[in-house]
Design a protein that fits this description.
It contains 6 helices and 9 strands; from the N terminus they run αααββββαββββαβα. It has about 260 residues and is an alpha/beta fold.
Length: about 260
């Protein structure tokens, strides 16, 4: 036999043997051996399923608020009343409009109680100054709360002066307002309501009054004096000394 052919046959046999060895032994040795204990742990491991979309938001969870929304919610919460509201059903908003004149700006807040209508022209010669504040809880100087107290007692003055100097008209001057009660002027006349105009100054027994209030009451008294022949400008305590002490801490030199 030719040596060249013999070598080719030997090479083919060797190559065939290598292929057989690789297919048999390499495949067997390449497999991962897993013990029964490892397989048990794999079977007991929890199956984790991840959402296909990580940005999906649960509709039942509240969305995060921006800082502006949080501040806005806080401010709205602060507006809610924290004090006890007395007879809330009795609080009736009054229509307000502004009465303008050269001396003073007057806000009409006319009430439907606490006075008697007067036919004809009422003769007025006395001005009575009172003190008033809200003693039922909450803002002591709230105009609406004070007016609501007047309603519960069915009383009223002609004018109410707020802490900022705003002047509210509650009763027309020609009507008889129930503000003086049992009282008597220095000249001995009773039924002071019939010939007087009542002015309420908002202030408690210790704080006194603001400069704006003094300016407002001074202008108001001047206006009234132009329309009526005023003989007396008195405090409530001057006509009812046995039962009244207001106006509290009032500086008469400022009017």
């Amino acid at each position: 036999m030719n040596k060249k052919i013999f070598l080719i046959i030997i090479l083919v046999i060797l190559a065939t043997g290598l292929v057989v060895w690789f297919l048999f032994f390499a495949e067997k040795n390449g497999k991962i051996s897993i013990s029964q204990e490892d397989q048990k742990q794999i079977d007991q491991a929890p199956i984790v399923v991840e959402s296909a979309n990580e940005n999906v938001v649960d509709s039942q969870q509240p969305a995060e608020k921006s800082p502006e929304e949080i501040v806005g919610a806080y401010e709205e919460e602060q507006k809610k009343p924290t004090e006890t509201v007395y007879d809330a059903k009795e609080i009736v908003p009054q229509k307000e409009d502004v009465e303008k004149n050269e001396e003073i700006k007057i806000i009409n807040k006319l009430v439907s109680w606490g006075y008697q209508k007067y036919s004809g022209e009422r003769k007025i010669d006395t001005i009575i100054i009172h003190s008033t504040y809200n003693s039922l809880g909450g803002d002591e100087y709230s105009v609406d709360k004070i007016v609501n107290i007047y309603k519960s007692y069915e009383v009223a003055a002609h004018y109410l002066i707020a802490r900022d100097g705003s002047v509210y008209k509650l009763v027309d001057e020609n009507n008889i307002a129930y503000h003086a009660g049992v009282s008597k002027t220095p000249d001995g006349r009773n039924d002071v309501n019939k010939f007087s105009i009542g002015i309420e100054m908002i202030g408690n027994k210790t704080d006194g009054y603001t400069d704006s209030q003094y300016d407002a009451v001074s202008d108001l008294v001047k206006k009234i004096k132009k329309s009526h022949s005023i003989k007396y400008v008195l405090g409530h305590k001057d006509i009812a000394p046995e039962r009244k002490t207001d106006p509290w801490k009032f500086d008469w030199d400022k009017i």
